[in-house]
User: Fold this.
Amino acid sequence: MDRHLPFDALRNFRDLGGYTTHDGQRIRPGRLYRADSLGKLAEGTEDWDRFLALGIRTVIDLRHPWEAESSGRAPAHPSFTYHNLSIEHRSYNQAAQTPDVDPGPYLAKRYMEVAADGVKEIRRALELAAEAAESDAPLVFHCASGKDRTGQLAALILGLLGIPDETVIEDYSLTELATPALLADWKARNNGHEPTWPGFGRAPQSVMRLFLASLTARYGSTENYVKNELSLDARALATTLRTALLEPHPTTWPPLTYRRATPADAPTLVRLRDSSALWQLARGIDQWQPGEKDETHFRTRMEQGEVWLAHAGPHLAGAWELWWDDQAAWGPRPADAGYIHRLMTTPHTAPPGTGRELLARAESRILATGRPYARLDCLASNPRLRAYYESAGYRVVGEQPAKDGGLGSPYAVTLLEKRLV
Assistant:
């Protein structure tokens, strides 16, 4: 599941459904959305039809009134109510910041200002979220890019729902997938000029990580902030949201189906890898970075080896690459193995055990070619991933201290191998 819903004009419209709580429940899909400016919607367009089809009954616009007036608001419609709640009281110009400004501390400080200034508006936004949840009506909240003010409200709601901090951080950083489009829109509005600040439109995980830490340091917890600063009954509010918006995880899933990727699948593979990279970074796993592998990479792997996709029903569940040699990690070898790379699953939405099933499928494909070994590597600094592969029957057979992965900076990898039966 790609959390970004497809619109022509909207860049960062996302469903918060599917995230898992501390106690193993999940947010119901199709109930809670976050977005960039809905002022980009226009009546009579396919985007407008797509938006109305979601059945949204409450729209919360977190922008300044002057932003809504100058850039437009969601067109009025009898199916939903519109609320303009400007939670940001001190305006600032991100695009004009100098290149030396670190996004993490800078934006986290701005967010703490909003938390202190916008108590009245934030309180009302949470009340509206609870009312929408109780009435079983979908709700969307948005600002201009769907990143800063929207990210703050999302963090509060997700926290009250019992979503772990690392998932809140990941959700914030998913704006990174929309950054190129948001930046292109900004340049189009500004005669093609580049923003002075390289961090404009970016959503690195460090921002939300610092904001959550700052919120806890100042107020003790998200619940204490809601109780003491917003003057709301945090426990009752959380109970209302959880009762209405959470559900058990499915107990049955469609069986996985597989097909070889074609060049037309390259954009999907790039997006899946970047989403996986953001999932890792939010959990402190520094293995992949978004943007490292482009469409050309995946098309090349299709030409020189195989790339496979897995689906659970109509939804993408994962993918992997299969190489027939890997001299960068393993050196010259006889044709006795297949090399598994970029084993990926869709974060939060793939059926349980998908990774292991994909691994077994890749091994079956290798064995079908008459090769008796499956080989792979992982960063030497990632013991968690090494343990995962060892539990799947792989054994460590060596280390390559300076693998050149084509990124210009060699790195150490642990080499793992499995004899196939």
